[in-house]
UniProtKB/TrEMBL annotation:
<dbReference type="Pfam" id="PF00990">
    <property type="entry name" value="GGDEF"/>
</dbReference>
<protein>
    <recommendedName>
        <fullName>diguanylate cyclase</fullName>
        <ecNumber>2.7.7.65</ecNumber>
    </recommendedName>
</protein>
<dbReference type="GO" id="GO:0005886">
    <property type="term" value="C:plasma membrane"/>
</dbReference>
<dbReference type="InterPro" id="IPR050469">
    <property type="entry name" value="Diguanylate_Cyclase"/>
</dbReference>
<feature type="region of interest" description="Disordered">
    <location>
        <begin position="1"/>
        <end position="24"/>
    </location>
</feature>
<feature type="domain" description="GGDEF">
    <location>
        <begin position="175"/>
        <end position="308"/>
    </location>
</feature>
<dbReference type="InterPro" id="IPR000160">
    <property type="entry name" value="GGDEF_dom"/>
</dbReference>
<dbReference type="GO" id="GO:1902201">
    <property type="term" value="P:negative regulation of bacterial-type flagellum-dependent cell motility"/>
</dbReference>
<dbReference type="InterPro" id="IPR043128">
    <property type="entry name" value="Rev_trsase/Diguanyl_cyclase"/>
</dbReference>
<dbReference type="InterPro" id="IPR029787">
    <property type="entry name" value="Nucleotide_cyclase"/>
</dbReference>
<feature type="compositionally biased region" description="Polar residues">
    <location>
        <begin position="1"/>
        <end position="12"/>
    </location>
</feature>
<dbReference type="GO" id="GO:0052621">
    <property type="term" value="F:diguanylate cyclase activity"/>
</dbReference>
<dbReference type="GO" id="GO:0043709">
    <property type="term" value="P:cell adhesion involved in single-species biofilm formation"/>
</dbReference>
Length: 308
């Protein structure tokens, strides 16, 4: 990207000598700042992806000020976004609009920040507010399109996106990958005996257990709702033995779980099919092997784990 933003480490403005000079210098400074802000705003408008907005901002700020790292924190994100390498001197800012808190941005470097540099930084951060707000809104929109509204798990589209990516990554890096398909046993009887709302509570509890039993991942979701009462877990870096342990843990947790709905205590069990990626697998065959294992578990009496 072409930019004419000043590239020196510090910001040098002419030293004022007389009141006339001072006024002229101030006018030049205001003009330079306006130009800088305009350029920065134009650059930040080129994307809605939050990490990229921050990377562009960091690159542009580094052209103007000597900064070693930028960290962005927001409780809505699962992890902080960190650019560069942290150093001794820090300054941080809360990003707020009239309505929203947009998180916090921190900068660091080896040398103290001067007052003038902090002023310049604050002015530049002003250009970051709208792009961050837009990126967070975009992120929220994308996530809600991929979220199952009842359970908060990923939906089928999210599952397909993630599984495709994880299969490609596992193959490229020659790493293990396992898939668990978890289906509630005789779920229809819950609906029939206690009503659909009771069934919904059970689905939420099962989704919660699945999230607790799966390990932290970089993916936006840890569990996916594939259909009515069927859920999927993607376990990266997990061999067949490890995935069987996770599956059995889930089965036991759910067997011991009680959902309380009105004055009823509801208990369910699950059947689980497990498959681990093999050389000849693609996303579809991996999933289909796990699904077949699930149906075998159902045929063999339910409340059990079957490894493909
Ligand atoms: N409460 C509730 N029920 C749902 C939802 N989606 C699907 N279902 C119900 O899930 C039930 C699935 O029933 P079946 O496919 O017969 O399976 P099952 O009773 O679990 O039996 P097996 O899988 O063979 O053990 C049906 O009664 C659906 O109406 C939902 O979002 N909420």
């Amino acid at each position: 990207m072409v930019t004419t933003v000043q590239s020196s480490n510090t910001v040098a403005f002419p030293t004022p000598k007389s009141p006339g000079n001072r006024k002229r210098t101030e006018a030049i400074r205001v003009e330079q700042h306006a130009e800088l802000r305009l350029q920065l705003s134009n650059i930040l408008q080129t994307t809605l992806e939050l990490p990229l907005v921050l990377q562009l901002f960091f690159d542009e700020v580094q052209r103007t000020l000597s900064i070693d790292s930028l960290t962005y924190r927001n409780s809505k994100l699962t992890s902080n976004i960190e650019l560069g390498i942290g150093a001794r001197h820090n300054c941080h800012y809360k990003l707020v609009t009239n309505k929203d808190s947009l998180g916090e941005v921190a900068f660091s470097r080896g040398k103290r920040f001067s007052e003038k540099e902090l002023q310049l930084l604050e002015m530049l951060i002003g250009c970051l507010i709208c792009p961050i707000r837009n990126s967070l809104m975009y992120r929220e929109a994308v996530q809600s399109a991929l979220r199952d509204p009842l359970t908060g798990s990923g939906n089928r589209m999210a599952l397909e996106n993630t599984l495709e990516r994880e299969v490609a990554l596992a193959k490229r890096h020659n790493q293990a990958l396992s898939v668990l398909v978890v289906d509630i046993d005789k779920f229809k009887t819950i609906n029939d005996n206690y009503g659909h709302t009771a069934g919904d509570y059970v689905l939420k509890d099962v989704a919660h257990i699945l999230t607790l039993c799966s390990r932290e991942t970089d993916a936006a979701y840890r569990a996916y709702r594939f259909g009515g009462e069927e859920f999927v877990l993607i376990l990266n870096n997990t061999e067949a033995n490890g995935s069987a342990v996770v599956a059995e843990r889930i089965r036991q947790y759910i067997e011991n779980m009680t959902t309380t709905f009105e004055e009823n205590s509801l208990n369910v069990t699950v059947s689980v099919g497990v498959a681990t990626l093999e050389d000849e697998d693609d996303m579809a065959t991996l999933f289909s092997r796990a699904d077949k294992a699930l149906y075998q578990a159902k045929r063999e009496g339910r409340n059990r784990v079957v490894n493909a």
